[in-house]
Design goal:
The protein has 2 domains: 127 residues, Rossmann fold, CATH 3.40.50; 203 residues, Rossmann fold. Helix content is 35%, strand content 20%. The protein is built from 13 helices and 14 strands. Strand 10 and strand 11 form a beta hairpin. Helix 1 runs parallel beside helix 5. It is elongated. The N and C termini lie far apart (49 Å).
Length: 354
């Protein structure tokens, strides 16, 4: 049996520290090695025993969690799961935490925090365990539900021959844990003439619009949060809104997207499997599918369906993943035609679209 992963909890609330400690300690592969009420006390605890994962609040006395996270990533990278009440400009706080290096973020409410944490115990345990396997480098200064597949949203169907006759290319990308940074690096390398891109990034509903705006400011291509009826155009990337599935559709000679509600698929909404399945049916061999860093297996089956329909498929390699979960499962299923380092993915996509 593998040794237990050591977890440090940093939160200024004694109640939250105790509740998180009870939840994390209940998992046989996790051990709470220490708790701290602020980053300064956390630093003292770390001198005695270095944790494998830190569960970190944002709003704390003496030093806020984002500042501590940035210093940690610059000096001694340790996987961090942010567990915080995000208020006010919450979208900016969420993105700031991800950009600073947080592996995962769990939003806790202002009220009934203990009950929320207890109800989310499986999600918390999963996030901490996945974070413990994250690959980090120094940086410069959902409740458990029945697991459903894409059939719950879009029944599998063979690609229609007429749709394969178009020469219009489309790129479909799926990502989860670590994906915000991975997507930024891929999209920043895309020229204005790049083929259209549709993206699912596992992210809460409140944050996808802000994430899209941030990418739009940083990239040559236009990046927006998708809405039903949006055209899929060259030089544009559409990101599925949090809490809704996104499907590629066809209107005459043009690609569009449909945003729809539906059950969680592989514990996620939006689901990468749902997007990839729609792309396999609508675009067939004219698509390129890419699966990036993330925990779990969402997207693996959909990418296999894309490859079976003639699409070219890429997976991020283990060395450049924060969490080599989704790409690993896709590779195991035979869905990945080629594994590529993150820094080479954009160039490889563009070559496959020629």
């Amino acid at each position: 049996m593998s040794p237990q992963k050591k977890v440090l909890i940093v939160d200024d609330s004694a109640l939250v520290r105790q509740t998180l400690a009870d939840i994390i300690s209940a998992h046989p592969r996790l051990r709470v090695c220490a708790t701290a009420n602020d980053p300064f006390q956390a630093a003292e605890r770390m001198r005695k025993e270095v944790p494998d994962v830190i569960v970190l609040d944002v709003e704390m006395p003496r030093m806020d969690g984002i500042t501590f996270l940035k210093r940690l990533m610059a000096q001694r990278p340790i996987p961090v799961v942010i567990c915080s009440t995000l208020v006010g400009d919450s979208s900016a706080t969420h993105l700031a935490a991800l950009e600073a290096g947080a592996v995962e973020i769990i939003q806790k409410p202002n009220l009934s925090t203990r009950r929320f944490l207890e109800d989310s115990s499986i999600r918390i345990q999963d996030a901490v365990l996945a974070a413990s396997h994250a690959h980090l480098s120094r940086r410069r200064v959902i409740p458990n539900e029945e697991k459903r597949n894409a059939d719950a949203v879009l029944p599998q169907a063979a690609p229609r021959r007429a749709m394969l006759q178009t020469t219009h290319k489309v790129i479909a990308i799926g990502a989860s844990t670590g994906g915000t940074e991975a997507l930024r690096r891929v999209l920043q390398a895309m020229p204005r003439t790049a083929p259209p891109i549709v993206i699912v990034q596992h992210m809460p509903e409140a944050f996808t619009s802000g994430f899209a705006r941030r990418l739009d400011e940083q990239c040559e291509i236009t990046v927006t949060e998708a809405k039903t009826g949006d055209s899929v155009l060259p030089g544009h990337a559409l990101i599925a809104p949090g809490s809704s599935h996104m499907l590629l559709t066809r209107s005459g000679a043009n690609y569009r997207v449909e945003v729809r509600d539906g059950p969680l698929v592989n514990r996620h909404r939006p689901s990468v499997d749902v997007l990839f399945r729609s792309v396999s049916c609508v675009a067939g061999a004219n698509a390129v599918g890419v699966i990036l860093t993330g925990m779990g297996d969402d997207g693996a089956r959909g990418l296999k369906e894309m490859r079976d329909s003639g699409a070219r498929t890429l997976g991020q390699n283990e060395a450049s993943c924060v969490v080599y979960g989704m790409p690993a499962e896709a590779q195991r299923m035979g869905a990945v035609e080629e594994e590529v380092d993150l820094d080479d993915i954009a160039a490889r996509i563009l070559r496959l679209c020629v």
